[in-house]
């Protein structure tokens, strides 16, 4: 299990934009499972939406991307690089994510050619799919 400080040694994101709290498992270059504890004090809940806070879908996608970045940037030759979004495909949002929820984030790298790769991504809350799709990344 990796905590936030250990995650920061792998990916460059920092608060308030570090969107994963812990990593349960990581197979470098292949997959990672992480968690985001959705706190009612998150900065984005002030405006999304007052009186009915819902985690924005784009931030669920970012949480998944950071999980995938842990997997790909854990490879020794990728140390010090960054994984940027190259695309989001087939992303579906199935369940609202609310304050108090814990997002389980699972990303599996399905292909990579040079600096470009694709991962399948699934976010769940209590075993129910909140979002799923494919993320394309570019290593820089």
Structure commentary:
The two termini are 27 Å apart. Strands 1-2-4-5-6-3 form a six-stranded antiparallel sheet, covered by helices on one side. By secondary structure, it is of the alpha+beta class. A hairpin with a 2-residue loop joins strand 4 and strand 5. It is built from two helices and six strands. The radius of gyration is 14 Å and the shape is globular. The protein has a single domain, classed as Roll (Thiol Ester Dehydrase, Chain A), CATH 3.10.129.10.
Helix content: 10-25%
- What is the helix/strand order? HEEHEEEE
How many distinct beta strands? 6
Give the number of helices: 2
Low-confidence stretches: none
| Major sheet strand order | 1-2-4-5-6-3
Radius of gyration: 14 Å
Text of the CATH class: Alpha Beta
Major β-sheet annotation: 6 strands, antiparallel
Query: CATH fold name, please?
Result: Thiol Ester Dehydrase, Chain A
**Rough shape?**
globular
Assembly classification: single chain
State the secondary-structure class. Answer: alpha+beta
β-strand amount: 35-45%
What is the arithmetic mean of pLDDT?
Answer: 97
Report the CATH architecture. Answer: Roll
Detail the topology: elements first, then pairings:
Elements: H1 4-8, E1 22-27, E2 31-37, H2 57-73, E3 83-93, E4 102-113, E5 116-125, E6 128-139
Antiparallel strand pairs: 1-2, 2-4, 3-6, 4-5, 5-6
Question: What's this model, at a glance?
Answer:
The chain is of the alpha+beta class and 140 residues long. It has helices at 4-8, 57-73; strands spanning 22-27, 31-37, 83-93, 102-113, 116-125, 128-139.
């Amino acid at each position: 299990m990796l905590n936030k400080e250990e995650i920061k040694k792998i990916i460059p994101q920092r608060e308030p934009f570090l969107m994963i709290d812990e990593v349960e498992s990581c197979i470098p270059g292949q997959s990672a499972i992480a968690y985001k504890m959705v706190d009612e004090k998150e900065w984005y809940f002030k405006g999304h939406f007052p009186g009915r806070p819902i985690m924005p879908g784009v931030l669920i996608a970012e949480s998944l991307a950071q999980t995938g970045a842990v997997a790909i940037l854990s490879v020794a030759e990728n140390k010090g690089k960054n994984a940027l979004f190259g695309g989001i495909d087939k992303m579906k949002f199935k369940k609202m994510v609310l304050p108090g929820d814990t997002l389980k984030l699972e990303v599996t790298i399905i292909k990579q050619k040079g600096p470009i790769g694709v991962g399948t991504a699934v976010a769940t809350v209590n075993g129910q799919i909140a979002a799923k799709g494919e993320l394309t990344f570019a290593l820089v």
